[in-house]
Amino acid sequence: MSSSEKTRTPVTIYGQHYIITGTETSAHMRLVAELVDEKMREIRSVNPNLDTGKLAVLTAVNAVHEQIKLQERLEHLEQELSRLKE
């Protein structure tokens, strides 16, 4: 598949069916959906009274937080690698 070719992948997230369209493989998009579903269920288990909208926002906030932490860790490791190469 070329990088511009779109794939349509049916997924279920938190009981809702979606068609995700993207240039990644179907396996990748299913994995993303699975991780979102898991995170939503994890947050719901701690906060059972959240409505779906708030649950979705908290899931997004958690995902972005994790992404920022990983980016910071990557930058730190890249700096450490550069330092060791000198």
TrEMBL record:
* One record GO biological process: FtsZ-dependent cytokinesis
Where it mainly occurs, coarsely classed, is cytoplasm
Q: Name one Pfam family in it.
A: ZapA
Q: What are the GO cellular component annotations?
A: cell division site; cell septum; cytosol
Residues annotated as transmembrane: none
Q: Which domain of life is it from?
A: Bacteria
The keyword Ribonucleoprotein is assigned to this record: no
Q: Does the keyword Kinase apply?
A: no
Keyword annotations for this protein? Cell cycle, Cell division, Cytoplasm, Septation
UniProt cross-references to InterPro entries, sorted A to Z: Bac_CellDiv_Activator, Cell_div_ZapA-like, Cell_div_ZapA-like_sf
Localization per Swiss-Prot or TrEMBL: Cytoplasm
NCBIfam families documented for this protein: PRK14126.1 (NF010724)
Give a short account of what the protein does: Activator of cell division through the inhibition of FtsZ GTPase activity, therefore promoting FtsZ assembly into bundles of protofilaments necessary for the formation of the division Z ring. It is recruited early at mid-cell but it is not essential for cell division.
Q: How does it assemble?
A: Homodimer. Interacts with FtsZ.
* Name listed for the protein in its UniProt record: Cell division protein ZapA
